[in-house]
Inverse folding.
């Protein structure tokens, strides 16, 4: 059998195996099926992380007079994608503020 033909047959059989793994229940490539438990875990983990962010928001305000408000959580059953991005931006801004604040306090007074 010529090499090109054999290579084509192997490629076709690999694609068929991938389609089977994608379409079968519990298949390794069935990403649609895997999204439901992943979405649940993401939501649970994000709510836990958000509770820590709330504590950081309060502490930053009381200790450093940090005034950039933490974005509020969306309503239950609302998508969390936008709040995740907003919380990430808030976290990066808070870190930048703390780094800048620590640089100010490291300069000698005079």
């Amino acid at each position: 059998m010529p090499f090109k033909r054999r290579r084509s047959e192997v490629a076709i059989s690999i694609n068929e195996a991938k389609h089977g793994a994608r379409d079968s229940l519990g298949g390794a490539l069935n990403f649609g099926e895997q999204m439901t438990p992943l979405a649940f875990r993401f939501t649970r983990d994000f709510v836990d992380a958000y509770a820590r962010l709330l504590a950081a928001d309060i502490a930053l305000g009381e200790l450093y007079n940090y005034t950039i408000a933490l974005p509020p959580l969306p309503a239950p059953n609302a998508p969390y994608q936008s709040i995740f991005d907003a919380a990430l931006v808030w976290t990066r801004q808070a870190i930048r503020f703390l780094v800048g604040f620590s640089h100010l306090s490291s300069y000698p007074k005079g």
